[in-house]
Write a structure and sequence with these properties.
Elements: H1 10-17, H2 21-32, H3 36-54, H4 59-65, H5 71-82, H6 86-91
Helix pairs in contact: 1-2, 4-5
Length: 93
Amino acid sequence: MGQRIHFRSPSEFSTQLSVHVNHLNRAVKEVTKKTTSEIIAGRLLQESKILLRHTEWNVSEIAYSLGFKEATHFNGFFKKNMQITPIRFREMK
């Protein structure tokens, strides 16, 4: 299995960038008109769709690789954003 995503929150990114989280949030919002959390969630969703379509990994493996501690958290995240479960998304190939 591939690498695991470790940075999933604005504070984790700001620490890596050596900037205050408020500064990061302000800068991202100014440039993208989206919150840092929205940018991160969008990227996780994009990666999850790619992994569901192009790998044979099960949902737990995908959840782990995207930094979710539990597959149920990943399922909830995916369903909230896509209005469909990861398994149903995969079946729609």
